[in-house]
């Protein structure tokens, strides 16, 4: 079973600090760059000056990065005693600060590893197809530079849920993360095309266990898809942050109830949903229309006039303030 349990609203640094307003106040003759690289350089130039302004500094202190929010959600889940032992996340959150908190809280983790991340070359050995050790120059090597050196004979097929991946696994050390296990995974036996790199703190886990566990993260993506397509997750019309979060919470509740409706009546019938969220939404809409028709029919049978029923159904709801 899977349910969304909590959320955090991320607000960009420039938004929460009203950065452009303060730039215009302190640097009225400077034009703010629009391109990302130039804008980042401009930040380095002006931000030290802006931070001397007490009003700007107060807003600066309120900013929280996505890593800060991830740590906050992790600690909240532990505080509420949610039963979990492994945390799954994408490469954006594979940061040293987040991993340190996971380590202190004794939580295992699996993530996607960016292909430009460095590996410590003295932490592993790599052999060619003839069994001879491949010499690696320098203290570090990027993942994307390591992959072409791996002989095809070193790859092994791993089947998870009727899908086969061609994998190579290696225990290494990564700066800031410590000892980890990598799983480099191709979709084809020819080892061509794109590949994914998974990384976990559990250096003793098998490639099968790492892949099978990380695939449990996929429902997060389908939740966002279903939430937007069927439940109006991104169709709010509020500007206030608190109101937006209330809207998201209502979507979470609706999704959870629909997911319960999709599950089999007992574990004897399996663990996979019997229908999609879209099918559950259509069934609920049909049930609502059926109930409405039966209600109107019942009212007509009891002598209610059709125009009165229509007036009741289509009347605007008036909210009366308490006396």
Task: Describe the protein's architecture and organization.
The strands form two sheets. A six-stranded mixed beta sheet has the order 1-2-8-7-6-5. A two-stranded antiparallel ribbon has the order 3-4. The chain is 43% helix and 15% strand. The protein has helices at residues 13-16, 19-26, 36-50, 54-62, 66-79, 96-104, 143-146, 207-214, 218-230, 241-262, 277-301, 306-314; strands spanning 86-89, 108-112, 118-120, 140-142, 156-160, 163-174, 178-186, 195-200. With 323 residues, the chain is α+β, with helices and mostly antiparallel strands. It contains twelve helices and eight strands. The mean pLDDT is 92. The protein has three domains: 18-62, no CATH class; 85-214, no CATH class; 219-289.
Q: Can you describe this structure in just a few lines?
A:
With 323 residues, the chain is of the alpha+beta class. The chain is built from twelve helices and eight strands.
Attribute tags:
8 strands, two-stranded antiparallel sheet, 6-stranded mixed beta sheet, 323 residues, alpha+beta
């Amino acid at each position: 079973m899977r349910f969304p349990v909590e959320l955090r609203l991320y607000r960009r640094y420039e938004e929460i600090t009203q950065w452009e307003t303060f730039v215009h106040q302190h640097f009225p003759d400077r034009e703010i760059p629009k391109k990302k690289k130039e804008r980042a350089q401009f930040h380095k130039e002006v931000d030290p000056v802006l931070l001397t302004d007490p009003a700007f500094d107060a807003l600066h202190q309120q900013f929280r990065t996505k890593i800060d929010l991830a740590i906050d959600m992790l600690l909240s889940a532990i505080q509420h005693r949610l039963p979990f032992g492994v945390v799954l996340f994408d490469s954006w959150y594979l940061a040293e600060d987040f991993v340190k908190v996971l380590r202190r809280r004794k939580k295992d983790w699996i993530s996607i590893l960016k292909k430009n991340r460095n590996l410590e070359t003295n932490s592993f050995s790599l052999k060619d197809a003839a069994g001879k050790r491949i010499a690696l120059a320098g203290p570090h090597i990027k993942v994307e530079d390591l992959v072409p050196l791996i002989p095809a004979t070193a790859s092994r097929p791993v089947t998870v849920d009727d899908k086969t991946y061609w994998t190579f696994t290696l225990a290494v050390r990564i700066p800031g993360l410590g000892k980890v296990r990598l799983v480099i995974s191709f979709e084809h036996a020819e080892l061509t095309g794109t590949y994914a790199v998974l990384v976990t703190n559990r250096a003793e886990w098998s490639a099968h266990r790492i892949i099978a566990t990380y695939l449990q993260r996929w429902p997060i993506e389908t939740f966002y898809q279903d939430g937007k397509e069927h439940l109006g997750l991104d169709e709010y019309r509020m500007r206030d942050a608190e109101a937006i979060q209330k809207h998201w919470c209502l979507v979470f509740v609706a999704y959870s109830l629909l997911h319960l409706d999709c599950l089999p009546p007992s574990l004897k019938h399996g663990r996979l949903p019997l229908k999609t969220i879209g099918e559950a939404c259509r069934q609920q809409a049909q049930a609502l229309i059926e109930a409405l028709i039966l209600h109107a029919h019942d009212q007509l049978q009891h002598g209610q006039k059709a125009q009165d029923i229509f007036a009741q159904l289509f009347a605007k709801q008036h909210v009366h303030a308490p006396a």
